[in-house]
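User: I want to check something. If I give you two sequences, will you return the structure for each one separately, not as a complex?

Assistant: Yes, each is folded on its own. Here is the first sequence with its structure:
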Amino acid sequence: MKLVFFIAMSLMVGLTGNWNADTAAAKITFSIKGPFGTVNGNFSSLKADIQFDEKNPGAGSISASVETKTVSTGVGLRNHDLTHKEEWFNSDKYPQMSFHSKKIEKTDKGYTALGDLTIKGVTKPAEIPFTFSGNGNSGVFKGHFTIKREDFNVGKPGGSVGSTVTVDLVVPVKK
Protein backbone atom coordinates (compact mmCIF):
# COMPACT_ATOMS: atom_id res chain seq x y z
CA MET A 1 0.00 0.00 0.00
CA LYS A 2 2.76 2.22 0.32
CA LEU A 3 4.94 2.30 -2.56
CA VAL A 4 4.85 3.44 -5.66
CA PHE A 5 4.84 5.51 -6.81
CA PHE A 6 6.59 4.99 -7.47
CA ILE A 7 6.89 5.70 -9.79
CA ALA A 8 6.83 6.19 -10.17
CA MET A 9 8.11 7.42 -10.69
CA SER A 10 7.54 6.41 -11.89
CA LEU A 11 7.52 9.13 -14.18
CA MET A 12 6.91 10.97 -17.22
CA VAL A 13 6.56 14.61 -16.47
CA GLY A 14 8.60 17.63 -16.79
CA LEU A 15 9.61 21.09 -15.95
CA THR A 16 12.45 21.22 -18.48
CA GLY A 17 13.25 19.47 -21.75
CA ASN A 18 11.49 19.74 -25.05
CA TRP A 19 8.21 18.76 -23.31
CA ASN A 20 7.03 20.62 -20.22
CA ALA A 21 4.66 18.72 -17.98
CA ASP A 22 1.53 20.29 -16.60
CA THR A 23 2.47 19.19 -13.09
CA ALA A 24 -0.84 20.40 -11.61
CA ALA A 25 -2.76 18.12 -13.98
CA ALA A 26 -0.30 15.19 -13.93
CA LYS A 27 -1.52 12.06 -12.15
CA ILE A 28 0.69 9.45 -10.53
CA THR A 29 -1.58 6.85 -9.00
CA PHE A 30 -0.96 3.45 -7.48
CA SER A 31 -2.81 0.46 -6.09
CA ILE A 32 -1.78 -2.46 -3.90
CA LYS A 33 -3.61 -5.20 -2.05
CA GLY A 34 -4.00 -4.39 1.63
CA PRO A 35 -5.31 -6.42 4.56
CA PHE A 36 -8.84 -5.05 4.05
CA GLY A 37 -8.95 -4.71 0.26
CA THR A 38 -7.13 -2.73 -2.38
CA VAL A 39 -5.44 0.49 -1.28
CA ASN A 40 -5.37 3.28 -3.85
CA GLY A 41 -3.22 6.36 -3.61
CA ASN A 42 -1.26 9.00 -5.44
CA PHE A 43 1.85 11.13 -5.38
CA SER A 44 2.22 14.77 -6.36
CA SER A 45 5.20 17.14 -6.79
CA LEU A 46 6.44 15.58 -9.99
CA LYS A 47 9.54 17.09 -11.58
CA ALA A 48 10.93 15.85 -14.86
CA ASP A 49 13.05 16.44 -17.90
CA ILE A 50 11.42 14.91 -20.99
CA GLN A 51 13.15 14.77 -24.34
CA PHE A 52 10.93 12.87 -26.74
CA ASP A 53 10.28 12.70 -30.48
CA GLU A 54 7.78 10.14 -31.82
CA LYS A 55 9.83 9.85 -35.02
CA ASN A 56 13.08 9.18 -33.17
CA PRO A 57 12.31 7.72 -29.73
CA GLY A 58 15.80 6.26 -29.37
CA ALA A 59 17.25 9.77 -29.14
CA GLY A 60 14.94 10.66 -26.26
CA SER A 61 15.30 10.52 -22.50
CA ILE A 62 13.12 10.82 -19.43
CA SER A 63 14.29 11.77 -15.95
CA ALA A 64 11.66 12.24 -13.28
CA SER A 65 11.32 12.43 -9.53
CA VAL A 66 8.58 12.74 -6.97
CA GLU A 67 8.73 13.65 -3.28
CA THR A 68 7.80 10.68 -1.10
CA LYS A 69 6.19 12.98 1.49
CA THR A 70 3.41 13.74 -1.03
CA VAL A 71 1.92 10.22 -0.85
CA SER A 72 -1.82 10.30 -0.24
CA THR A 73 -4.13 7.34 0.33
CA GLY A 74 -7.10 9.20 1.78
CA VAL A 75 -6.31 7.94 5.30
CA GLY A 76 -4.29 10.36 7.44
CA LEU A 77 -2.82 7.77 9.82
CA ARG A 78 -1.74 5.56 6.91
CA ASN A 79 -0.17 8.55 5.13
CA HIS A 80 1.71 9.43 8.34
CA ASP A 81 3.05 5.88 8.66
CA LEU A 82 4.06 5.80 4.99
CA THR A 83 6.05 9.02 5.24
CA HIS A 84 7.55 8.57 8.70
CA LYS A 85 8.22 4.88 9.33
CA GLU A 86 11.53 3.35 8.23
CA GLU A 87 9.78 0.24 6.91
CA TRP A 88 7.86 2.35 4.42
CA PHE A 89 9.22 5.55 2.83
CA ASN A 90 10.86 7.44 5.71
CA SER A 91 10.62 10.70 3.78
CA ASP A 92 13.15 12.49 5.99
CA LYS A 93 15.83 9.95 5.06
CA TYR A 94 14.61 9.20 1.52
CA PRO A 95 12.87 12.35 0.27
CA GLN A 96 12.56 11.35 -3.40
CA MET A 97 11.87 8.48 -5.74
CA SER A 98 13.34 8.83 -9.22
CA PHE A 99 13.49 7.28 -12.65
CA HIS A 100 16.20 7.90 -15.25
CA SER A 101 15.86 6.31 -18.67
CA LYS A 102 18.80 4.78 -20.45
CA LYS A 103 16.87 3.99 -23.61
CA ILE A 104 13.44 4.54 -25.16
CA GLU A 105 12.15 1.97 -27.65
CA LYS A 106 9.18 1.84 -30.01
CA THR A 107 6.86 -1.13 -29.35
CA ASP A 108 3.71 -2.57 -30.91
CA LYS A 109 1.57 -0.77 -28.32
CA GLY A 110 3.55 2.47 -27.99
CA TYR A 111 6.92 2.89 -26.33
CA THR A 112 8.99 1.56 -23.43
CA ALA A 113 11.38 3.59 -21.31
CA LEU A 114 14.13 1.34 -19.96
CA GLY A 115 16.16 2.74 -17.12
CA ASP A 116 16.81 2.87 -13.39
CA LEU A 117 14.15 3.31 -10.72
CA THR A 118 15.39 4.42 -7.29
CA ILE A 119 13.29 4.09 -4.14
CA LYS A 120 14.67 4.29 -0.58
CA GLY A 121 18.24 4.39 -1.89
CA VAL A 122 17.80 1.13 -3.84
CA THR A 123 18.24 1.34 -7.61
CA LYS A 124 16.86 -1.39 -9.86
CA PRO A 125 16.34 -1.70 -13.61
CA ALA A 126 12.79 -0.78 -14.64
CA GLU A 127 10.74 -0.82 -17.81
CA ILE A 128 7.90 1.65 -18.12
CA PRO A 129 5.59 1.03 -21.08
CA PHE A 130 3.87 4.21 -22.22
CA THR A 131 1.88 5.82 -24.97
CA PHE A 132 2.11 9.34 -26.30
CA SER A 133 -0.74 11.23 -27.95
CA GLY A 134 0.52 14.42 -29.50
CA ASN A 135 -1.36 17.29 -31.07
CA GLY A 136 1.00 19.99 -32.27
CA ASN A 137 2.56 21.69 -29.25
CA SER A 138 0.72 19.60 -26.66
CA GLY A 139 0.29 15.96 -25.79
CA VAL A 140 -0.27 13.36 -23.12
CA PHE A 141 2.04 10.63 -21.89
CA LYS A 142 0.29 7.63 -20.29
CA GLY A 143 2.11 4.80 -18.56
CA HIS A 144 1.16 1.64 -16.72
CA PHE A 145 3.57 -0.71 -14.93
CA THR A 146 4.11 -2.80 -11.82
CA ILE A 147 6.93 -3.08 -9.31
CA LYS A 148 7.67 -5.39 -6.42
CA ARG A 149 7.78 -3.34 -3.23
CA GLU A 150 10.17 -5.74 -1.51
CA ASP A 151 12.78 -5.10 -4.25
CA PHE A 152 13.05 -1.59 -2.78
CA ASN A 153 12.85 -2.51 0.92
CA VAL A 154 9.38 -1.01 1.20
CA GLY A 155 7.30 -2.70 3.88
CA LYS A 156 8.00 -6.00 5.56
CA PRO A 157 8.50 -9.17 3.52
CA GLY A 158 5.31 -11.20 3.22
CA GLY A 159 2.51 -10.20 5.53
CA SER A 160 -0.90 -8.85 4.68
CA VAL A 161 0.27 -6.18 2.22
CA GLY A 162 0.54 -7.30 -1.40
CA SER A 163 3.95 -7.60 -2.99
CA THR A 164 3.05 -5.99 -6.32
CA VAL A 165 2.30 -2.31 -6.77
CA THR A 166 0.51 -1.14 -9.90
CA VAL A 167 1.39 2.37 -11.06
CA ASP A 168 -0.48 4.52 -13.57
CA LEU A 169 0.79 7.78 -15.03
CA VAL A 170 -1.06 10.47 -16.95
CA VAL A 171 1.12 13.45 -17.81
CA PRO A 172 -0.19 16.28 -20.00
CA VAL A 173 2.65 18.17 -21.69
CA LYS A 174 3.29 21.29 -23.79
CA LYS A 175 6.24 22.57 -25.77
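And separately, the second sequence with its own structure:
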Amino acid sequence: MTSRRYEQRLRAETAEETRRRILDAVYERLRAAPTERLSLDQVAQSARVARSTIYLIFGSRGGVFAAVASDLLDRGGFDRVVKAVSHPDPRETIRLGLLASCEVFAKSRDIYRVLLSSAMLDPDATAGATQRSEKERAAGMKALATRLGEQGQLRADVSIDEAAHVLWLMTGFDAFDSLYTGRGLPVEEVARLLTATAERTLCRPRRGSGRTAGGRA
Protein backbone atom coordinates (compact mmCIF):
# COMPACT_ATOMS: atom_id res chain seq x y z
CA MET A 1 0.00 0.00 0.00
CA THR A 2 1.37 3.40 -0.98
CA SER A 3 1.75 6.18 1.56
CA ARG A 4 -0.96 8.20 -0.17
CA ARG A 5 -3.51 5.36 -0.05
CA TYR A 6 -2.66 4.73 3.58
CA GLU A 7 -3.27 8.37 4.44
CA GLN A 8 -6.55 8.36 2.51
CA ARG A 9 -7.69 5.29 4.43
CA LEU A 10 -6.78 6.90 7.74
CA ARG A 11 -8.68 10.07 6.85
CA ALA A 12 -11.74 8.01 5.85
CA GLU A 13 -11.60 6.03 9.08
CA THR A 14 -11.22 9.21 11.12
CA ALA A 15 -14.16 10.83 9.33
CA GLU A 16 -16.34 7.77 9.97
CA GLU A 17 -15.34 7.71 13.64
CA THR A 18 -16.28 11.39 13.94
CA ARG A 19 -19.58 10.78 12.21
CA ARG A 20 -20.29 7.88 14.56
CA ARG A 21 -19.50 9.99 17.63
CA ILE A 22 -21.89 12.68 16.47
CA LEU A 23 -24.74 10.23 15.86
CA ASP A 24 -24.14 8.59 19.23
CA ALA A 25 -24.22 12.04 20.83
CA VAL A 26 -27.57 12.73 19.13
CA TYR A 27 -28.98 9.50 20.60
CA GLU A 28 -27.59 10.46 24.00
CA ARG A 29 -29.28 13.86 23.91
CA LEU A 30 -32.61 12.45 22.68
CA ARG A 31 -32.67 9.95 25.53
CA ALA A 32 -31.50 12.45 28.15
CA ALA A 33 -33.96 15.19 27.18
CA PRO A 34 -36.77 13.64 25.11
CA THR A 35 -39.11 16.60 25.55
CA GLU A 36 -36.58 19.25 24.51
CA ARG A 37 -35.69 20.42 21.03
CA LEU A 38 -32.37 18.87 20.08
CA SER A 39 -29.47 21.29 20.64
CA LEU A 40 -26.67 20.85 18.10
CA ASP A 41 -24.41 22.83 20.42
CA GLN A 42 -24.87 20.18 23.10
CA VAL A 43 -24.41 17.43 20.53
CA ALA A 44 -21.15 19.01 19.40
CA GLN A 45 -19.96 19.26 22.99
CA SER A 46 -20.80 15.62 23.72
CA ALA A 47 -19.15 14.45 20.50
CA ARG A 48 -16.06 16.60 21.15
CA VAL A 49 -16.32 18.43 17.84
CA ALA A 50 -17.05 21.95 16.71
CA ARG A 51 -20.61 22.77 15.69
CA SER A 52 -19.26 23.57 12.24
CA THR A 53 -18.03 19.98 11.96
CA ILE A 54 -21.60 18.72 12.26
CA TYR A 55 -22.63 20.90 9.33
CA LEU A 56 -19.53 19.91 7.38
CA ILE A 57 -20.41 16.22 7.68
CA PHE A 58 -24.21 16.32 7.50
CA GLY A 59 -24.83 19.54 5.59
CA SER A 60 -27.72 20.81 7.71
CA ARG A 61 -29.92 20.08 10.71
CA GLY A 62 -32.16 18.13 8.35
CA GLY A 63 -29.15 16.13 7.23
CA VAL A 64 -28.47 15.14 10.84
CA PHE A 65 -31.99 13.78 11.32
CA ALA A 66 -31.94 12.07 7.92
CA ALA A 67 -28.70 10.35 8.96
CA VAL A 68 -30.25 9.36 12.30
CA ALA A 69 -33.28 7.85 10.56
CA SER A 70 -31.05 5.91 8.16
CA ASP A 71 -28.71 4.79 10.94
CA LEU A 72 -31.60 3.48 13.04
CA LEU A 73 -32.73 1.32 10.14
CA ASP A 74 -29.24 0.04 9.38
CA ARG A 75 -28.51 -0.83 13.01
CA GLY A 76 -31.90 -2.45 13.47
CA GLY A 77 -31.63 -4.76 10.47
CA PHE A 78 -33.95 -3.05 8.00
CA ASP A 79 -32.38 -5.09 5.19
CA ARG A 80 -34.67 -7.92 6.35
CA VAL A 81 -37.71 -5.72 5.73
CA VAL A 82 -36.41 -4.95 2.24
CA LYS A 83 -35.87 -8.67 1.61
CA ALA A 84 -39.43 -9.42 2.72
CA VAL A 85 -40.81 -7.06 0.09
CA SER A 86 -39.29 -9.21 -2.66
CA HIS A 87 -41.15 -12.36 -1.55
CA PRO A 88 -43.52 -13.48 -4.33
CA ASP A 89 -46.36 -14.14 -1.84
CA PRO A 90 -47.58 -10.80 -0.46
CA ARG A 91 -48.97 -12.53 2.63
CA GLU A 92 -45.48 -13.77 3.41
CA THR A 93 -44.30 -10.20 2.86
CA ILE A 94 -46.72 -9.12 5.60
CA ARG A 95 -45.51 -11.83 7.99
CA LEU A 96 -41.79 -11.47 7.37
CA GLY A 97 -41.93 -7.69 7.07
CA LEU A 98 -43.86 -7.20 10.31
CA LEU A 99 -41.50 -9.44 12.28
CA ALA A 100 -38.47 -7.62 10.91
CA SER A 101 -39.93 -4.15 11.45
CA CYS A 102 -40.95 -4.98 15.03
CA GLU A 103 -37.38 -6.07 15.73
CA VAL A 104 -36.09 -2.81 14.21
CA PHE A 105 -38.43 -0.78 16.43
CA ALA A 106 -37.55 -2.77 19.54
CA LYS A 107 -33.80 -2.19 19.20
CA SER A 108 -34.23 1.60 19.39
CA ARG A 109 -37.69 1.97 20.89
CA ASP A 110 -36.92 5.07 22.97
CA ILE A 111 -35.40 6.94 20.02
CA TYR A 112 -38.32 6.14 17.72
CA ARG A 113 -40.78 7.37 20.35
CA VAL A 114 -38.93 10.68 20.72
CA LEU A 115 -38.64 11.23 16.97
CA LEU A 116 -42.29 10.47 16.24
CA SER A 117 -43.54 12.52 19.19
CA SER A 118 -41.38 15.45 18.13
CA ALA A 119 -42.64 15.20 14.57
CA MET A 120 -46.25 15.45 15.79
CA LEU A 121 -45.75 18.26 18.30
CA ASP A 122 -43.14 20.22 16.37
CA PRO A 123 -42.87 19.16 12.69
CA ASP A 124 -39.79 21.32 12.22
CA ALA A 125 -37.94 19.61 15.07
CA THR A 126 -36.89 16.65 12.94
CA ALA A 127 -36.56 18.75 9.77
CA GLY A 128 -39.02 16.54 7.89
CA ALA A 129 -36.99 13.32 8.23
CA THR A 130 -39.78 11.46 10.03
CA GLN A 131 -42.43 12.74 7.65
CA ARG A 132 -40.44 11.54 4.62
CA SER A 133 -40.00 8.12 6.19
CA GLU A 134 -43.74 7.81 6.87
CA LYS A 135 -44.55 8.90 3.32
CA GLU A 136 -42.27 6.18 1.95
CA ARG A 137 -43.90 3.60 4.22
CA ALA A 138 -47.35 4.65 3.02
CA ALA A 139 -46.25 4.17 -0.59
CA GLY A 140 -44.87 0.75 0.28
CA MET A 141 -48.14 -0.31 1.89
CA LYS A 142 -50.10 0.84 -1.15
CA ALA A 143 -47.84 -1.29 -3.34
CA LEU A 144 -48.32 -4.29 -1.03
CA ALA A 145 -52.10 -3.83 -1.01
CA THR A 146 -52.04 -3.67 -4.81
CA ARG A 147 -50.14 -6.97 -4.94
CA LEU A 148 -52.71 -8.58 -2.65
CA GLY A 149 -55.49 -7.35 -4.91
CA GLU A 150 -53.81 -8.44 -8.13
CA GLN A 151 -53.25 -11.95 -6.75
CA GLY A 152 -56.88 -12.25 -5.63
CA GLN A 153 -55.96 -12.50 -1.96
CA LEU A 154 -58.07 -9.61 -0.67
CA ARG A 155 -61.53 -10.24 0.75
CA ALA A 156 -64.32 -9.28 -1.62
CA ASP A 157 -65.47 -6.45 0.65
CA VAL A 158 -61.99 -4.90 1.01
CA SER A 159 -60.68 -2.43 -1.56
CA ILE A 160 -57.02 -1.86 -2.32
CA ASP A 161 -57.20 1.60 -0.74
CA GLU A 162 -58.76 0.19 2.43
CA ALA A 163 -56.11 -2.52 2.56
CA ALA A 164 -53.37 0.09 2.21
CA HIS A 165 -54.80 2.03 5.17
CA VAL A 166 -54.96 -1.07 7.37
CA LEU A 167 -51.44 -2.16 6.43
CA TRP A 168 -50.15 1.34 7.17
CA LEU A 169 -51.78 1.15 10.60
CA MET A 170 -50.48 -2.34 11.42
CA THR A 171 -46.89 -1.61 10.34
CA GLY A 172 -46.53 1.68 12.21
CA PHE A 173 -44.52 2.28 15.35
CA ASP A 174 -47.60 3.19 17.38
CA ALA A 175 -49.26 -0.18 16.71
CA PHE A 176 -46.05 -1.94 17.69
CA ASP A 177 -45.49 0.14 20.82
CA SER A 178 -49.05 -0.19 22.07
CA LEU A 179 -48.44 -3.92 22.43
CA TYR A 180 -44.70 -3.92 23.16
CA THR A 181 -44.65 -1.17 25.80
CA GLY A 182 -48.32 -0.75 26.62
CA ARG A 183 -49.01 -4.48 27.08
CA GLY A 184 -45.47 -5.66 27.79
CA LEU A 185 -45.51 -8.33 25.07
CA PRO A 186 -42.33 -9.80 23.55
CA VAL A 187 -41.41 -8.78 20.01
CA GLU A 188 -42.36 -12.12 18.44
CA GLU A 189 -45.85 -12.03 20.00
CA VAL A 190 -46.37 -8.42 18.90
CA ALA A 191 -45.47 -9.39 15.33
CA ARG A 192 -47.75 -12.45 15.46
CA LEU A 193 -50.74 -10.46 16.69
CA LEU A 194 -50.25 -7.68 14.14
CA THR A 195 -49.86 -10.20 11.34
CA ALA A 196 -52.95 -12.15 12.38
CA THR A 197 -54.99 -8.94 12.65
CA ALA A 198 -53.90 -7.72 9.23
CA GLU A 199 -54.55 -11.06 7.54
CA ARG A 200 -57.92 -11.71 9.17
CA THR A 201 -59.07 -8.20 8.33
CA LEU A 202 -57.88 -8.12 4.74
CA CYS A 203 -57.35 -11.56 3.27
CA ARG A 204 -59.44 -14.43 2.00
CA PRO A 205 -58.95 -17.71 3.92
CA ARG A 206 -56.19 -19.84 2.47
CA ARG A 207 -57.47 -22.78 0.48
CA GLY A 208 -57.56 -25.99 2.43
CA SER A 209 -56.91 -24.25 5.74
CA GLY A 210 -58.98 -22.44 8.30
CA ARG A 211 -55.83 -20.93 9.80
CA THR A 212 -54.16 -17.61 9.22
CA ALA A 213 -50.51 -16.66 9.16
CA GLY A 214 -50.88 -16.04 12.88
CA GLY A 215 -51.15 -19.81 13.34
CA ARG A 216 -54.67 -19.95 14.86
CA ALA A 217 -58.09 -20.66 13.44
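Because they were folded independently, the notes below concern the second chain alone. The radius of gyration is 21 Å. DSSP finds eleven helices and no strands in the chain.
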